[in-house]
Amino acid sequence: MRVASPWRSAARTDVGKVRARNEDAFLDCPQQGLWVVADGMGGHQGGDIASQLIVASLAELPVPDDFDERLKSVRQCLHWLNRRLGQELTITAGHHDSIMGSTVVALLVEGNRAACIWAGDSRCYLWRGQCLYQLSKDHSLQQQMIDEQNMSVEDAHAHPGAHALTRAVGAADQLTLDVLELEVYPDDAFLLCSDGLYNGLGTDALGKALSLTAPHIALERLFDGALHGSARDNLTAVVIRQ
């Protein structure tokens, strides 16, 4: 018998001010210690189908007692979805030359153990000791130029292809997931979000929102700030804290 989760969370998505449809999706399951944000690849057929499928499939996973087994099952599910999106769905949708894909960032927590799993540029942040840490590292051309060409953040951001993804679920035959495991401390807070949200807010605004003790109030602060701006993309965030 599983005991009640010590974690509280709040999640929200918004189409923003420009896009015609919302290709983001989220999973908010504090009782299972699992939270997910998926951002369907804009401009591709079925981006919303891909993100919804990722969230629905992860929600249906069994919940074994062993943390390592749970982490393994999340990874296996994403690899299975990568094959399904890359082959079956693209063909049945009749778009042989298109990609049906999505970013994913997931947070798995049990006791004092946590793991962040991701592919793409949706992010996981940690708020600890009044400091904001970006746990995930974007799988994007912008980040690749910074890492491999020693380009400044400003120059890389200005590059015309900066936001092109170098990894996503459904984008290539082989999916490479990054996983970061960490120990959870009391008063830790986490934020999962799509690029539409963090691109519209600076790190100061993210930190100020996460310093608020109630997840739903932090979420409201994030969306008020993002929707006050241009909100050119879909916005999705999940705020998680003990």
Can you give keywords for this protein?
Phosphatase 2c, domain 1; 242 residues; five-stranded antiparallel β-sheet; 10 strands; 7 helices; globular; single chain; alpha+beta
Helix and strand topology:
Elements: E1 8-14, E2 24-29, E3 34-39, H1 47-59, H2 67-92, E4 104-110, E5 113-119, E6 123-128, E7 131-134, H3 141-149, H4 153-158, E8 178-183, E9 189-193, H5 195-198, H6 203-210, H7 215-228, E10 235-241
Antiparallel strand pairs: 1-10, 2-3, 3-4, 4-5, 5-8, 6-7, 6-9, 9-10
Order of helices and strands: EEEHHEEEEHHEEHHHE
The coarse silhouette is globular
CATH fold type = Phosphatase 2c, domain 1
Question: Which blocks of ≥5 consecutive residues have pLDDT under 50?
Answer: none
CATH architecture: 4-Layer Sandwich
Report the major sheet: 5 strands, antiparallel
Brief sketch in words of this structure:
With 242 residues, the protein is α+β, with helices and mostly antiparallel strands. The protein has helices at residues 47-59, 67-92, 141-149, 153-158, 195-198, 203-210, 215-228, and strands spanning 8-14, 24-29, 34-39, 104-110, 113-119, 123-128, 131-134, 178-183, 189-193, 235-241. The chain has seven helices and ten strands.
